[in-house]
Design goal:
The complex is a heterodimer.
Chain A: H1 3-19, H2 21-28, E1 32-33, H3 40-60, E2 69-71, E3 83-85, H4 86-96, H5 101-128, H6 137-159, H7 164-178, H8 184-192, H9 201-231, E4 245-250, H10 251-276, H11 282-285, H12 304-312, E5 318-320, E6 323-325, H13 327-355, H14 371-390, H15 393-399, H16 404-443, E7 445-452, E8 458-463, H17 467-474, H18 499-512, H19 520-540, H20 542-551, H21 554-566
Antiparallel strand pairs in A: 1-4, 2-3, 5-6, 7-8
Chain B: H1 36-39, H2 41-71, E1 77-80, E2 84-87, H3 88-114, E3 121-124, H4 132-149, H5 155-167, H6 169-175, E4 198-200, E5 218-222, H7 225-232, H8 236-240, E6 243-247, E7 266-270, E8 282-284, E9 289-291, E10 298-300, E11 306-309, E12 318-319, E13 321-323, E14 329-331
Antiparallel strand pairs in B: 1-2, 4-5, 5-6, 6-7, 7-12, 8-9, 9-10, 10-11, 13-14
The chains are: A mainly alpha, B alpha+beta.
């Protein structure tokens, strides 16, 4: 036994004697994790969060969360002698006087952008593959919570340096809080410690940014991962993969090396971005002062859709009974995001209510097979993207020499018109793909081999799909749309149908009325039919017999027969 | 996972949607295909050297990072093709550290992909729920615990406890009261008052009417601001008081918010957008439109500052001005309405 092994076993025994760690390790070292590129999206989010913790801790050693006014005399010449807050001055200090400070700032900012981006794309993956279904609804809710917290956390961090851009963002945030009916003004005064900007807000925001929200995120991530561990990861359908197993690589050593290595890759990419691409050059914006502004100012990408909503909203305001209700601010900044995140959180429960499906699902859906869900997701993304583009309406107008009014009106119309169009198109796409899968299963794959029959007829040979592809094409649930039973009973009394049931039936019809999935029974019938056809052909079918003779291959007969049978699929 | 588990619909007469059973065709895992490194020792050796090279390069990068940290002063500028002038320190430290980290990851993944076993394994899933017996036992235990505690029967204890628990959070709420003062008239008043001079931002020079030229835009502050800011130590007064001055020909002025609020065609408006409070700064002198760069609200300064486009709902508040005995522009009085974004009590 080598020294290292002895040392390892010594440590193991020490821990095992005290906390029985080996029992747990025995069960988990060989734990299987399925492999798919899209499963790495959540990993990217996790790793960028770790990068944020590391770089953020470093930054906190130098940053002074104070709004006390001082005169800057650091090494950045252009701002020497200017009055500014200590927060801004210390950010300049990190950028110009601490070696590697600028790098850590930029890595921190890049990792933040990546963190929210990875969570967003990970959410899309989970949505479109139906990974949120039972038993993973709780993890979906935690994920929605993480995304929300991530957006707030990013905005808080963006606001701390107290530069002109971030101060303007805070001014907007304060205006939004003021627009909340009844309590808004008081809320704004409590949050800011008085009127805007005051001197309390940056220190308050600091503790929110470095302790409260990251603590909550850390807790939620831990719970999120524990559930992934406990419930085991979902997997895509394929040969050998069932609802009752997990196929993949063991934690030790392959998954450990891959996932651990991937952490370093994500970290390394963040650092390289921080080295090569300047982000948030606060020294160019100058210190915050409420009297100045820069044109073309843009928030970080994940705030873009909220800013866009604020820009596209018509200027509605209600004045009545001595009170003011700023619908122009309240709706886009509070109501719309509130509705969006609520719908997002409730979606798994809504879909489960429609399908009535209470089973566990561990095999992922192919997005095409859940056409309406996929179309609804595409619709939501379209809505989001139009708002997001709206957040850059001034940039679009100046870059393309368009009138800002035209841009805003176009986006307002698109916001309402485009999502339904995308819904219809996506649903059609999905249904077409379902049909294609159906055709493949019924008629096989076109081989490109053309046969000319003695009779002069031309035929293309179709090869049956492989067993493993068949598994993929047949995977997933097939739901029948819900029919309301309204036939009168023996006494001629129609059963009462509640409006809730009616809505449920309508939604079920909308979800499942159109679909072209082949059921296992249909497939079995078709295969039986083909087998008979092949048998007939082999016994005396003129054409197939000729083919068999031509190719010298007995299986060709079956193929051709299948192809012929396939040309009239409805009989199959 | 068969039809017996399938959809159990809720109450109502509907037929439960039928979910078909899972895939009946389930061939086993596809056969494992050996990689080159599995069958060719030379390929395996090559992969081993590649992984070691990646790790070695990482170590060299870390050394480079330390050298860069010690040797390169923060002020040094590097001119790079495509990237232009960049901080030599940031670039060197970032590239070396980034590669040092990245290469460890790349090496580990390469190692896993080429040399570690790539035979897929299978774990069985176990039912997540506990058995019926366990469930019943737990519920019984909880019920017994509740009964033992008397929580069910002793209503007095239960009610007083719940009452006390419900009240307790109020103390936390009360503690938050001193987070900030009540709004009071804070949002309705500014530093502007009768006779307060308008000074230029940022030079703080008082302004004579001839300083405001046709087509130009002058940013102004109240002359009293500095004294107030020095004693208060906040930017609160500044946030409410910025104004802009423009000059129009008398025939160009369509409307004002008050009679004779201009001085010889010089109009003074708040600079704070009535949408969410950004300072508006883009003035288009031919149309007399003032555009807020944040959300593109557009105000017509020749027509009483009314909104002509964008999400703002209210006209830009106008400040009545005149000149004092020394010929400098001064306010006639404070704004007659709150400046900046709307709020519930504004009315």
């Amino acid at each position: 036994m080598s020294t290292i092994e002895r040392a390892g076993q010594g440590t193991g025994n020490y821990l095992d004697d005290r906390i029985g760690v080996n029992r747990w390790l025995k069960k988990n070292l060989g734990k299987i994790f399925p492999d798919h590129w899209s499963f790495m999206l959540g990993e990217i989010a996790l790793y960028s969060f770790i990068v944020l913790l590391l770089t953020g801790t470093y930054l906190s050693l130098f940053f002074k969360p104070s709004m006390t006014e001082i005169v800057y005399n650091g090494s950045y010449v252009n701002l020497q002698g200017i009055r500014m807050s200590e927060a801004y001055a210390s950010t300049l200090g990190i950028s110009f006087d601490v070696r590697g400070g600028l790098l850590m700032r930029q890595v921190h900012h890049w990792a933040a952008l990546l963190f929210v981006a990875a969570m967003t794309v990970h959410l899309c993956r989970v949505f479109f593959t139906g990974a949120f279904r039972k038993p993973r609804e709780l993890n979906w809710l935690m994920g929605v919570g993480l995304l929300t917290l991530g957006i707030f956390e990013g905005f808080a961090g963006y606001s701390l340096p107290d530069d002109l851009l971030s101060g303007t963002g805070l001014r907007i945030a304060e205006g939004i809080v003021q627009a909340i009916p009844i309590v808004g003004t008081y809320l704004a005064f409590f949050i800011f410690g008085g009127p805007f900007p005051g001197s309390d807000f940056i220190p308050r925001l600091y503790i929110v940014h470095v302790l409260l929200i990251p603590g909550a995120i850390l807790g939620l991530i831990t719970a999120h991962l524990m559930l992934v561990w406990f419930q085991k990861h979902t997997q895509f359908p394929g040969p050998g993969r069932t609802e009752k197993n997990v196929v993949g690589y063991p934690l030790m050593p392959v998954y450990m090396a891959k996932a651990g290595g991937f952490f370093f890759v994500v970290f390394g990419v963040c650092v390289l971005l921080g080295a090569a691409v300047t982000i948030n050059p606060v020294w160019l914006f100058g210190p915050y002062t409420p009297t100045q502004i820069t044109a073309g100012s843009q928030p970080d990408w994940y705030i873009g859709w909220l800013d866009g909503a604020l820009r596209l909203m018509p200027n509605w305001e209600i004045n009545a009974f001595g009170h003011t209700l700023s619908l122009n601010v309240f709706i886009p900044s509070v109501v719309i995001p509130g509705i969006c995140f609520t719908l997002l959180g409730l979606y798994p429960f809504l879909e489960q209510w429609i399908t009535g499906d209470r089973r566990e699902h561990h095999l992922l859906d192919r997005p095409r097979n859940a056409a309406v869900r996929t179309a609804a997701g595409a619709m939501a993304i379209t809505f989001y993207l139009v708002l997001w583009i709206g957040g850059g309406n001034d940039v679009i107008a100046t870059h393309f020499a368009l009138s800002i009014n035209t841009v805003i009106w176009t986006l307002r119309v698109l916001l309402l018109v485009l999502p339904p169009i995308v819904f219809v198109i996506t649903k059609r796409f999905c249904l077409s793909l379902q049909r294609r899968d159906r055709d493949k299963l019924l008629h096989g794959i076109e081989t490109g081999t053309i046969l000319r029959m003695p009779s002069g007829e031309f035929l293309e040979l179709h090869a049956p799909v492989s067993e493993s592809e068949k598994v993929l094409l047949m995977a997933g649930d097939r739901y029948e749309p819900l029919e309301l039973d309204t036939t009168p009973d023996d006494n001629g009394v129609s059963p009462r149908v509640s409006s809730v049931d009616r809505i449920r039936a309508k939604l079920s019809q909308a979800y499942f009325a159109d679909q072209f999935r082949l059921s296992p029974e249909e497939l079995a019938a078709a295969e039986e039919h083909h087998a008979h056809a092949a048998l007939d052909a082999g016994q005396g079918g003129e054409t197939a017999g000729a083919v068999a003779a031509v190719t010298g291959d007995g299986e060709a007969a079956a193929l051709t027969a299948a192809a012929q049978a396939g040309s009239s699929p409805d009989q199959a | 996972m068969s039809d017996e588990h399938a959809a159990q619909a809720g109450p109502g007469q509907e037929v439960a949607p039928v979910a078909h059973a899972e895939n009946p065709l389930a061939p086993g895992l596809p056969p494992h295909r050996p990689r080159r490194a599995d069958v060719d020792p030379r390929a395996a050796k090559r992969a081993e050297r590649q992984v070691a090279l990646l790790f070695t390069l990482s170590a060299l990068c870390t050394i480079g990072f330390i050298v860069g940290y010690v040797e390169i002063p923060n002020s040094e500028v590097l001119n790079l093709p495509l990237m232009g002038a960049v901080s030599a320190s940031n670039f060197t430290l970032g590239v070396t550290l980034g590669l040092a980290i990245f290469l460890i990851g790349a090496g580990a993944i390469h190692w896993a992909k080429k040399l570690m076993p790539d035979v897929e394994g299978v774990d069985e899933r176990h039912e997540l729920r506990s058995s019926d017996e366990t469930r019943e036992a737990v519920y019984a235990q909880v019920a017994e615990g509740i009964a033992d505690s008397g929580f069910g029967q002793r209503k007095l204890i239960r009610r007083t406890l719940l009452g006390a628990m419900a009240l307790l959070p109020l103390s936390a709420l009360v503690l938050l009261r001193d987070l900030g003062p009540l709004p009071g008239t804070e949002l309705r008043t500014t530093l502007w008052a009768k006779g307060v001079r308008i000074v230029q931002d940022p030079s703080l020079q008082p302004i004579r009417p001839e300083d405001v030229v046709f087509g130009g835009l002058v940013s102004g502050l109240p002359a009293t601001l500095m004294a107030v800011e020095d004693s208060a130590g906040t930017l609160n007064a500044r946030a409410k008081s910025p104004v802009i001055l423009i000059r129009l020909r008398p025939e160009e002025i369509v409307a004002e918010q008050g009679k004779n609020w201009d001085y010889e065609g010089i109009l003074c408006y708040s600079k704070i957008c009535t949408h969410v409070g950004c300072p508006t700064a883009l003035y288009e002198h031919q149309t007399h439109h003032l555009l807020c760069p944040c959300h593109q609200s557009t105000f017509d300064l020749a027509d009483a500052g009314k909104v002509v486009f964008g999400p703002a709902a209210r006209a830009m508040p106008q400040l009545a001005i005149t000149v004092d005995a020394d010929g400098y522009l001064v306010a006639q009085h404070d704004f007659t309405q709150p400046i900046g974004p709307s709020f519930w009590e504004r009315g």
